[in-house]
Fold this sequence. Notes:
- The chain is mainly alpha-helical.
- It has 5 helices and no strands.
- It has helices at 3-10, 22-25, 37-65, 72-98, 100-103.
- Helix 3 crosses helix 4.
- The longest helix is centred in the middle third of the chain and has 29 residues, at 37-65.
- The relative contact order is 0.12.
Amino acid sequence: MHISKVLSLVEDDQFFVHNGLDFWFTPEEAKAKIPTKWKQFLITWSAIFPLVLTISALVDWLTTTIPINPSHELKVLSITFLVVLMMVYVVMPRYTKLVHQWLFS
């Protein structure tokens, strides 16, 4: 295949490079502007902080209710796994929609 044919196939393609956690904040339409870093920081921190508190309390409660004694590393592994899972699939998709107007103003 000649280079001109290849270029004609991809000339309308759009490529986007996300930096850090921008994928949580950039809408599907990539022509939208990216929010300022301080707003990204506040939104991310305000979502992670209550999750860490809640999930830590849940893991502590489970380890005292169920007679198991996990190591500190296993507890931290469990907490961070659950926080990241919740952030990616539950919290951030909804949270960024909720604060979209402020985030992009």
